[in-house]
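Example 3.2
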Amino acid sequence: MQSLKQQWFGNIRGDILSGIVVALALIPEAIAFSIIAGVNPMVGLYASFTIAVLIAFVGGRPGMISAATGAMALVMVPLVRDYGVEYLFAATILTGIIQIIFGILKIAKLMKFIPNAVMIGFVNSLAILIFMAQVPHFVGISTMTYVFVAITLVIVYTLPRFIKVIPAPLIAIVLLTAIAILSGFDLRTIGDLGTITQTLPSFIIPDVPFTFETLQIIFPFSLSLAIVGLVESLLTSRIVDDMTGTESNKNQEARGQGIANFVNGFFGGMAGCAMIGQSVINVKSGGRGRLSTLIAGLFLMFLILILGDLVVKIPMPVLAGIMIMVCIGTFDWSSFKYLVKAPRTDAIVMLTTVIIVVLTHDLSKGVIAGVILSAIFFVVKISTVKIIQEGNRYIVEGQLFFASTDSFIHYFKNANIESNHIQIDFSNSRIWDDSGVGALVSIEEMLRNKGISVEVLDLDKSSKRIMDKLEGISTH
């Protein structure tokens, strides 16, 4: 109870103010992601409102912001194009169900298999993608656009030295919006991205046939959305953990994302997940608790319903400037030193993750590629078995499994063994799979045919177990 109270009311002022900043920054992104997915801007806005409000209660990472995201929007494009928005709503509901199941199965424990090099690549690629998304809003438009971006950056970086009560991004938005309105400068605004309808989301049942054919259509998209959403959410959760020095419940977060998307589909929203950019804005603006996430969602809808006429006048260069600040803060600048000092394989994994994410705009593909590449490098690294001869005893150094059996067999095939009895010592080794068992059996039979008996020494319990199961070889 004390922990829950702290999560909700331990940082009231900071959470409220940071939530307001996040809500203002959510609007252009939600509209932009809706455009990417090929749906009405309100679909992204409704999703951001619904998911943010729900995840504040059911999520596992206080202070993390979840809403409509670009990574999810990219997955939706073919579904919306070929079947329409109603199928998207149905897919969003199914996405939620799949994520809830993943959460129940404790899928978050797989996070430990994501190497540090992949994490660094994930963070850096996100920073690059966020920056790339801002480029159309300020490059090649007008001189005044550059001026407003520059002033925004000056405010967000210098003002916190003098004013800490109110987040600098919020001051920048209010002050520069007022200047833009009063001066009449020709600047692009949020209203240029799409029409905002000043209405609350309403409960709907997706207008699709409830048939197996519909399930066949939406299931592949829902599974992709569920995986992409959880990868981005759990990695973002880990980043916020590091930024705040606190722990989060990853399995609860997975279930929470599922509940939020399940409900969201019934209110006309697109599937969403955690947002690294908005989460960083929230933390840097002082947000720490669940209240900040709730305020972000509620204030977003307040802006749409009550202040919609003013919101559409917020200059895009101001929001672009704030997001550039997020990019600078998110990017791991020490990774340049990491590239030089880290093992070459880790540097390759990090760069590969970044390149794939940036080229595909798909975070899951980059992370999965990075994990697979790390696994391959690891297997290659441990796939060489070294054998040390001490008289008639042959001491095996290294792990015996499918990738190392060739070097193991090759040694004994080419060894000049003069004794009619040898010992193969596994005190510094372990047999991991049937390939390892097969290699040992093969060597034993080959040497027996040459009149050489083999005694296997010091197998650990696990190695003995797999040997007994597969071949029943007598060991000592």
